[in-house]
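Appendix B, Record 12. Input sequence as logged:
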Amino acid sequence: MSVGKSPSWPVVTGPLAVHADGFRAELEELGFSCWAASRHMYVFDAVSRWLAATGLEAADLDPVCVNEFLIARRSEGRARPPTSRGLEPLLCFLRRCDAVAVEVAPGALGPVAQVVFEFGIHLRDDRGLSPRTIVGYGRTARLFLQACAPDPTAAGCGLGGLDTLGSEGSPGSCWSAAPV
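Logged structural output:
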């Protein structure tokens, strides 16, 4: 009879420790496998320990701070460092718990990232979509904007004109008709 392995779970320390049980429960509710949930919990623990080591609190976890964490993890030479996309379930959970700020400091994100961020807030607050769905739509929106409007603030490519980007004859159209 073979005995199946089960994943290990970290003992979360640092400022996020009070939210660890809730995050693990949410991962289970969202349908993450026990192995994927375990990996997310290790990242959760790493973020919490990094916050403690840098003297920061959970409330300081804004996009700039997340970027600093990601840079620190990459600089450690990890084989599989976390990505901003991989941190989305954690950040969405912490936002719902009011542990971190929902709003982004002005200028902290580039123009495309700012639009995608605001789109994510709309999907969550107005449409009630799940974090997994928001991540998927956000990725698609980012790819679309990078291809069609890499700098939405540039002349002639304002955000107000995004609804015309797909129409025939519009400058920089992503959906131009294929030659016959």
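Confidence is low (pLDDT under 50) at residues 161-180.
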